[in-house]
Write a structure and sequence with these properties.
Residues 128-148 have a biased composition (Low complexity). This is Helix-turn-helix domain-containing protein. The chain crosses the membrane at residues 98-118. Residues 128-157 are annotated as: Disordered. By secondary structure, this protein is α+β, with helices and mostly antiparallel strands. Among the domains are: 2-76, 434 Repressor (Amino-terminal Domain); 167-249. The chain has helices at residues 2-8, 13-20, 24-31, 41-55, 59-69, 79-82, 99-122, 133-139, and strands spanning 167-173, 178-183, 189-195, 200-205, 209-213, 219-223, 226-230, 238-243, 246-249. The strands form 2 sheets. A 5-stranded antiparallel sheet has the order 3-2-5-8-9, with no helix packed on it. Strand 6 and strand 7 form a beta hairpin. Helix 1 packs parallel to helix 4, helix 2 packs across helix 4 (41-55) and helix 4 (41-55) packs antiparallel against helix 5. The longest helix is centred in the middle third of the chain and has 24 residues, at 99-122. The two termini are 36 Å apart.
Length: 250
Amino acid sequence: MLTTARIDAGLTVDQVSTSTRVRVPIVHAIEQDDFSRCGGDFYARGHIRALARAVGVDGEDLVARYDAAHGGSPADRRPTQLLDTAPIKVNDHRRPNWTTPMVVAILAVVALIGFNLFGGHSNAPATGAASSPLASAAGSAPAGSSAQPPAPAPSLAPIAAAPADKVTVKLVAEKATSWVSAKDGKGKALFSNNLETGQDQTFTDPKQISLVLGNAGAVHVYVNGKDLGPAGADGQVVHVTYTPGDPQAG
């Protein structure tokens, strides 16, 4: 019903998301009867009312339908259903008692740590003992010479060169999942789905690539062979377009 009402109103999911402050992936999920992203019944009812208001339908009717499909609203439940009336269970003394084995195990660990600490002091070299080979090597270095700085950490592997006459965009979900929508220069949809953690997608077009990222902080962006880093902040919805020859947003 929400999808039909939105289409009849001439609104896109992005427009509904902007007016209601409900994230794009959650709007998509609710329109598909998936409420797992809402964070519970309370938030699901709030999202339903907000979306219904945006597309011009009766939100209370939709909430009532939701409650009927998910066990009813909290007000409809009788008080006796909210109380645990089961008889109080008496501790069963026949169950094994793990307290003593746990105490023994803890004492054993403490004793092992103490042995390692005090035993290590007895093995320490005496004053004036021969230094280690590394210390000797360091002591033999010419006076005034400085220690070599540590080698820098290896950089990320270079990205393959992209064609100069096209725009090439690679998206990598490095630390979380993000909903991604990608369109080419003619407005044709190339991708519209979740990009799970560890997955990547690459898009190429002669004119431009337009993106909508539902969780910009989770998506690492490479454009025309250059690393642009995360597309935005965690949880931020970003709309961006890239063109040939320019690694920055068009």
